[in-house]
Structures are given as C-alpha cells and as structure tokens.
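Lecture 7 notes: from sequence to structure.

We start with a single chain of 69 residues. Read the sequence below before looking at the structure.
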Amino acid sequence: MHVATILLIVLLAVVAVLLGVIAFVALTIWWTFKPILDALGKIALALDLGRFLYRRKRRQVYRGSWHHE
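Now the structure, written as tokens:
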C-alpha cells in the first residue's frame, strides 16, 4: 500500500514537471511569434485602410467628373 502511494506521488510529480515543460515551451513560442503576428496584423490593417480610402477617392472623382451632368 505504501509503495503504491509513493508510486502515485512520483507519477503525479512527473506529470506536473511535464506539464510545466510543455507550458514553458508553449509560452516561449507564443512570446516569440506574438510581435510578428502583431506587426502582420498592423500591415494588413494599413493595407485594408489604404484600399478603402483609394476606392472612396476614386468613387468621388468618378461622381464628380460626368455622373452629375
């Protein structure tokens, strides 16, 4: 009975250490790629904003040229 209890405690300790290692690796990967993903998100937002403003500007020029005549 005591051997089983000791083995269970050792097994739980091994599982806890493995979960800690997995969490450390996952956080390291996340902290590495988070700034890259943030920068790509800002670039995508800037491109979308530029497309929107370009289309809006083209539409205003188009309306002002001959559409109202």
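The chain has one helix and no strands. Keep this in mind for problem set 3.
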